[in-house]
Amino acid sequence: MDAILPECNPAQNDSTNKDPANTVPAAMTVQDLLALKRVLSVAVSPCGTWAAVALERLDRDGSKFAVDLWRVALDGSGQPRQLTRGKSRDQSPCFRHDGALGFLSNRPDPDNPAEEDGDSRSQVWLLPAHGGEATRLTDEALGVSAFRFARQADTLVLLAPCWPDVALEKQREFARQRKKQKNMYRCSGFFSRV
């Protein structure tokens, strides 16, 4: 056997060996793995020139993961541009037929920042096609699990959890009571918004 595997070559581990080509890189640590950003999902724009990428990262405190959306040119030109930022989870990008970018987020509602259960409920948000601030499209009592826009119509179809045998207008209050009891269960239902 003529070849010696790098990790088995004693010359590489010799502290007197100063050749950078023969050095073994340091092993990855748990902290290194946690610091890596992860691609969660990708959506190609209707024009086909760029993609929206949901990138998960550890927050500044190192206590939980946040997700940001980035704009990446598909031809490799230019640098990626960050579209959303903060401590929320902005994920599951999906384009509307007019080029506006929808996504799920658990960001607080700017009209009601003191909402007590907002952090745990993802809603559908929309970034205008030509830039601007994101606006919230939905206010489902238990949040939204998934969504899609119709290809050529102004229709949003979404999947949202719901409590069986509880009226739609009473879902939020019922969920708050159940959360206090710590006895949660889910049932999925479909809702359509035009």
Describe the protein in words.
- It is a single chain.
- The protein is mainly beta.
- It has one domain: Methylamine Dehydrogenase, Chain H, CATH 2.130.10.10.
- The chain is built from two helices and eleven strands; from the N terminus they run αββββββββββαβ.
- It has helices spanning 30-35, 171-181; strands spanning 38-44, 50-58, 65-73, 81-82, 91-95, 101-105, 123-127, 135-136, 146-149, 156-162, 187-193.
- It has a four-stranded antiparallel sheet, with no helix packed on it.
- Strand 2 (50-58) and strand 3 form a beta hairpin.
- The protein is globular, with a radius of gyration of 23 Å.
- Residues 1-13 and 186-194 have low confidence and may be disordered.
Question: Quick recap of the structure?
Answer:
By secondary structure, the protein is mostly beta strands. Helix content is 9%, strand content 32%.
Strand content: 25-35%
Which class best fits the helix and strand makeup? mainly beta
Q: Shape, please?
A: globular
CATH architecture: 7 Propeller
Mean pLDDT: 81
N-to-C span: 69 Å
What is the fold's blueprint, element by element?
Elements: H1 30-35, E1 38-44, E2 50-58, E3 65-73, E4 81-82, E5 91-95, E6 101-105, E7 123-127, E8 135-136, E9 146-149, E10 156-162, H2 171-181, E11 187-193
Keywords:
single chain, Methylamine Dehydrogenase, Chain H, mainly beta, globular, 32% strand, disordered C terminus, 194 residues, 4-stranded antiparallel β-sheet, 9% helix
